[in-house]
Automatic annotation (TrEMBL):
GO terms for molecular function: methyltransferase activity. SUPFAM superfamilies: S-adenosyl-L-methionine-dependent methyltransferases (SSF53335). Residues 56-233 form the Methyltransferase FkbM domain. One of its GO terms (biological process) is methylation. Keywords: Methyltransferase, Transferase. This is FkbM family methyltransferase.
Length: 256
């Protein structure tokens, strides 16, 4: 079992991460800066309130959910994280920071239910864990150029784990069967379209805002934008902050 360790990411603010002590750098510090400092998820007209209902798909160790609860303590969140070690860190962080009103599900989301699906967990780079490790090849090639192959082997050494895949509409029937979903946040390392394909038309109409991180491989960004447009959203895109352009990572902000 992967051990959790505590990392201080800001003065008086520490989180548990499933990361080895000898990691070359702390990915969670990058994620903290993206969410808390640059406020990446509250841009381009994205607005929340104390009564917001939010779905956090790809919750990782919980920094986005913690940010929301800090800004809007009354918000309700449904958080999904499929990787076992990362899920344990997520639960621990929510408990340690007293973040009430967050329901956590250890599952991924997709276009159809699947009981056991293989995922690749990267202990030294947990935020990159994915169902589609072959799509990380461009990331690995870039890192090799910067730090060399031996360091890449340490950073991108993956461990196979299994997780359940659910449809978002099925999960919503248990959590919030009616009423608006104020924000759908998706950061799932290559499975963005599958997440959206798991929404029934009636639930699409309930979603008011979306923020997605999309790596534009094989026309994925255009496909996501086309799907959002078909469901009545107006979308804005920009390059993901602090990520090299060669990785083709975009943030998509969609509102009605």
């Amino acid at each position: 079992m992967t051990e959790l360790r505590s990392v201080q990411v800001a003065e008086g603010f520490s989180v548990s991460v499933p990361q080895p002590e000898d990691a070359l750098f702390s990915e969670v510090e990058f994620i903290y800066n993206e969410i808390f400092v640059e406020r990446t998820y509250l841009k381009h007209g994205i607005r929340l309130s104390e009564s917001a209902r939010i779905v956090d798909v790809g919750a990782n160790v919980g920094l986005f959910s913690l940010f929301v609860k800090q800004e809007f303590p009354g918000a309700r969140i449904l958080a999904f994280e499929p990787i076992p070690a990362t899920h344990r860190a997520l639960v621990e962080n929510l408990e340690n920071h007293g973040a009430a009103g967050v329901e956590v599900v250890r599952a991924a989301l997709g276009g159809r239910p699947e009981a056991r699906v293989s995922f690749t967990f990267y202990p030294a780079l947990h935020g990159n864990s994915t169902r589609y490790p072959e799509q990380k090849k461009i990331n690995q090639e870039l890192i090799v150029e910067q730090i060399g192959p031996e360091a890449v082997d340490r950073i991108m050494g993956g461990v196979e784990v299994e997780a359940e895949v659910r449809r978002l509409s099925d999960a919503l029937r248990d959590w919030a069967p009616e009423g608006p979903i104020d924000l759908l946040k998706v950061d799932v390392e290559g499975a963005e379209l599958e997440v959206l394909e798991g929404l029934d038309p009636s639930d699409w109409r309930r979603v008011r805002q979306c923020v997605l991180e999309v790596q534009d491989l094989d026309g994925r960004l255009d496909a996501v934008l086309g799907l959002l447009d078909a469901h009545g959203f107006t979308a804005t895109t920009e390059s993901a902050p602090d990520i090299p352009d060669v990785l083709r990572q975009s943030m998509v902000y969609a509102t009605r």
